[in-house]
Specification:
This protein is α/β, with parallel strands linked by helices. The chain has two domains: 2-188 and 275-364, TIM Barrel (Alpha-Beta Barrel), CATH 3.20.20; 195-270, no CATH class. The protein has helices at 10-19, 31-37, 56-68, 86-98, 109-114, 135-143, 157-166, 195-198, 200-208, 211-219, 224-231, 257-270, 285-291, 305-325, 329-344, 356-364; strands at residues 2-6, 23-26, 72-77, 103-106, 123-126, 148-150, 171-177, 295-298. It has an eight-stranded parallel beta barrel with strand order 1-2-3-4-5-6-7-8, surrounded by five helices. Helix 1 runs parallel beside helix 14. It is globular.
């Protein structure tokens, strides 16, 4: 099982290789693309300029650094494109090949069908935007040439286990750290990065300094009542449709009224400033390892380098503890929580990608 880290620069690549990253993914948004379509129409579903490189010269050097350290590099081209954008995307594909990128991460079916005609000879990974929930979808993408599928965040552990075990000939990748969005990527039509266009100076300078990351990290150290009040306020303005105040109801034929009320409250409270912040799935790593999952993805191309290094080292230590010490499951979970607090300076607060009850369900299927 590989640790897949986001990377934004050659310097980051060097330090992350030394820290233990075994795969990298990155995005490119040239100035010509941003001028024509704006960052809101990013070619890789990461709309903030700070999350992207601006050209392929750096990608070439990054690939050299990655390969020298035994690490592979993947390029995200996982947006949905218009017909007018295809000539530029085809040029991206050609440049990626020249840069010796190992795989393209793709969601657009038209691009997936056309990659080989464009001359792409590397691996093809289907993005989480491909909305993969079952074996039929995996088979569909396999027939189109994919060698890896990236599962949606909404898959439960039992479903991930089944998909990985039922498709041993295809690599399965799952999310493990950061940005546990409540929405399904492939179905989401929310526009992000709007403030980067609407209020560029007010937004871009703090973003480039990563002040948003430091602010949220500081808030996580606040007492819970204070943190909750701030996170549901509008004091920071609208940073995306994900943070709007939604009226949510539960449609279920099986959930009891009490359970429906619990779910309704949980989902309403989850759409706030902390939505998806620093979500963690480390406690479920034993289930993912046993199922044959090939890669654990850390989200956060725009995070500061020290955060990326923390994430890689945290996961590497968790994996080593489980595989080398072979502890009891409860001891492993306690180890993860203790290490999380030691690494990041605050408790995980049960912000789980895969809640422990899901992990228990997954374990029963192994």
């Amino acid at each position: 099982m590989k640790i897949l880290s986001p990377v934004k620069s050659v310097r980051e690549a060097r330090e992350l290789v030394a820290a233990g990253a075994e795969e990298f993914y990155c995005g490119v948004m040239p100035g010509s693309w941003q001028a024509r379509y704006s960052n809101v129409a990013s070619p890789n579903r990461r709309e903030w300029a700070v999350s992207n490189m601006t050209g392929f010269d750096e990608v070439t050097t990054m690939a050299e650094v990655a390969h020298a350290g035994g690490t592979r590099l993947f390029l995200a081209l996982n947006a949905l494109y218009t017909e007018k954008q295809y000539p530029e995307i085809e040029e991206f594909v050609r440049q990626a090949g020249k840069s010796r990128v190992d795989a393209l991460i793709v969601a657009d079916l038209g691009l997936l069908l056309d990659l080989r005609r464009m001359g792409w000879e590397g691996d093809i990974h289907v993005s989480t935007g491909g909305t993969i929930f079952n074996d039929e979808t995996v088979a569909f993408y396999r027939e189109l040439g994919a060698c890896r599928v990236i599962l949606e965040r909404q898959n439960r552990i039992s479903e991930i286990v089944a998909l990985a075990r039922n498709n041993p000939d295809l690599e399965v990748e799952t999310f493990i750290l950061n940005c546990g969005c409540k929405n399904i990527d492939g179905f989401c039509t929310h526009h992000h990065g709007i403030n980067e266009v609407r209020v560029p100076l007010w937004w871009n300078v703090p973003k480039k300094l990563r002040l948003d990351h430091y602010l949220l990290s500081y808030m996580k150290r606040m007492p819970l009542p204070v943190r909750e009040k701030i996170s549901h306020s509008s004091m920071f303005g609208s940073v995306g449709a994900c943070f709007l105040s939604y009226d949510i109801d539960i449609a279920s034929a099986t959930a009891s009224p009490e359970r429906q009320n619990q779910l309704r409250t949980t989902f309403r409270n989850s759409f706030n400033l902390f939505s998806g912040f620093d979500t963690c799935g480390a406690c479920a790593m034993p289930d993912l390892l046993a199922a044959g999952v090939k890669s654990l993805k850390i989200v956060g191309r725009g995070n500061p380098l020290h955060k990326k290094l923390q994430d890689v080292r945290f996961l590497k230590t968790c994996r080593e503890y489980w595989t080398e010490q072979q502890p009891q499951r409860k001891d492993y979970e306690s180890f993860c929580r203790t290490l999380y607090r030691k690494t990041y300076g605050y408790a995980c607060d049960n912000w789980c990608y895969y809640p422990l009850e899901d992990a228990a369900i997954g374990a029963e299927t192994l």
